[in-house]
Amino acid sequence: MNQVPAVRVDDVSQVYFPGTANQVRALRHLTLEIAPTEWVAVIGSNGAGKSTLLRTVAGLERPVRGGVELAGRDVTSWPEYRRAGIVARIDQDPGASTAPTLTIEENLAIAAMRGKRRLFRLGVTAARRRAFRDALAVCDLGLEDRLQTPVGNLSGGQRQALGLVMATLNAPQVLLLDEHTAALDPKAAAQVMTLTERQIREHRLATLMVTHNMQHAIDYGDRLVMMHRGQIVLDMRNPAKSQLTVGRLVDRFHEVSGESFSSDRSLLAP
Ligand SMILES: Nc1ncnc2c1ncn2[C@@H]1O[C@H](COP(=O)(O)OP(=O)(O)OP(=O)(O)O)[C@@H](O)[C@H]1O
Ligand SMILES: [Mg+2]
């Protein structure tokens, strides 16, 4: 790679309960580089280390070994809040990325302040309201006309859509999605994926997207990474990736891991 990677995970290991009978090696000497604007789908069986990898990039945990660079800067010792101007993250729970008792525009106002050093002010000016309306209009869910609605009144899909708009408000370079459509019904999941693609491409984000949906991993993004027991066991780029089938992917998992694919959530059928 001759450009500075957006994300560089260098020989990272993570161990929980070290030295005890319950020791778990969640990440094992994992190295991964993601180019600017590259979209990587991550799949793998339960406990493979997918969420641990994303939390390590976000700064929610510090690896016992190895380092993390974001846009060429060594951020290994940076806590999460310091990385917030570079990284945005959405997980599976629509309740986690938005505040239910606050209105849509209050949530957006908070998101706009993330990673900035300015004094916190919740006030929403007319100009900001217009900007929020424009940002929400891309969702195509009518949220731009409901700025004063408490977020708790929205459906899971609408909250994840709002989360995606919030995530891109202050121009991060990296987006981390941890099964962000897993709690949604298929129709809402499809809407959120359409918006996900639009936001990633429009804002030119480097993206790590963990998904339980194998077909989404094939259809979306530029590259597919399969994890197993804390390591990357398969790494494919387009066009080879987009020519995969779910059946072929499950077979490949078996070939590289010697085990059957096992996940309580994964959709093995399209
Ligand atoms: N905070 C923690 N404390 C102790 N063990 C943990 C912690 N977080 C994860 N683990 C363990 O580390 C391993 C990797 O977990 P992780 O959540 O990263 O897997 P995953 O690939 O996201 O799995 P899933 O598909 O179930 O979401 C698992 O064995 C898990 O039980
Ligand atoms: Mg997980």
* Main beta sheet strand tally, sense and closure: 6 strands, mixed
Associated small molecules? adenosine-5'-triphosphate, magnesium ion
CATH homology-level superfamily: P-loop containing nucleotide triphosphate hydrolases
Outline: globular
How many DSSP E strands?
10
What's the number of helices?
A: 9
Describe the strand arrangement of the main beta sheet, using strand numbers.
6-7-8-3-9-10
This entry's quaternary arrangement is single chain
**Tally of separate domains:** 1
Query: What is the distance, rounded to the nearest whole angstrom, between the alpha carbons of the first and last residues?
Result: 33 Å
Q: How much beta, percentage-wise?
A: 15-25%
Q: Give the helix level as a range of percent.
A: 25-40%
The appropriate CATH architecture is: 3-Layer(aba) Sandwich
Order of helices and strands: EEEHEEHEHHHHEHEHEEH
CATH topology value: Rossmann fold
Mean pLDDT: 91
CATH secondary-structure class: Alpha Beta
Spans with pLDDT under 50 lasting ≥5 residues? none
What would you say this structure looks like, in words?
The protein is an alpha/beta fold and 270 residues long. The protein has one domain: P-loop containing nucleotide triphosphate hydrolases (Rossmann fold), CATH 3.40.50. It contains nine helices and ten strands. A hairpin with a 2-residue loop joins strand 4 (65-70) and strand 5 (73-74). Helix 4 runs parallel beside helix 6. The structure holds adenosine-5'-triphosphate and magnesium ion. Magnesium ion (MG) binds next to helix 1.
Please specify the SSE layout and strand pairing.
Elements: E1 7-16, E2 24-34, E3 39-44, H1 50-58, E4 65-70, E5 73-74, H2 80-83, E6 87-91, H3 94-97, H4 104-113, H5 126-137, H6 156-168, E7 174-178, H7 186-202, E8 206-210, H8 214-219, E9 223-228, E10 231-237, H9 246-257
Parallel strand pairs: 3-8, 3-9, 6-7, 7-8
Antiparallel strand pairs: 1-2, 1-4, 4-5, 9-10
Helix pairs in contact: 4-6, 6-7
This protein binds adenosine-5'-triphosphate and magnesium ion (MG).
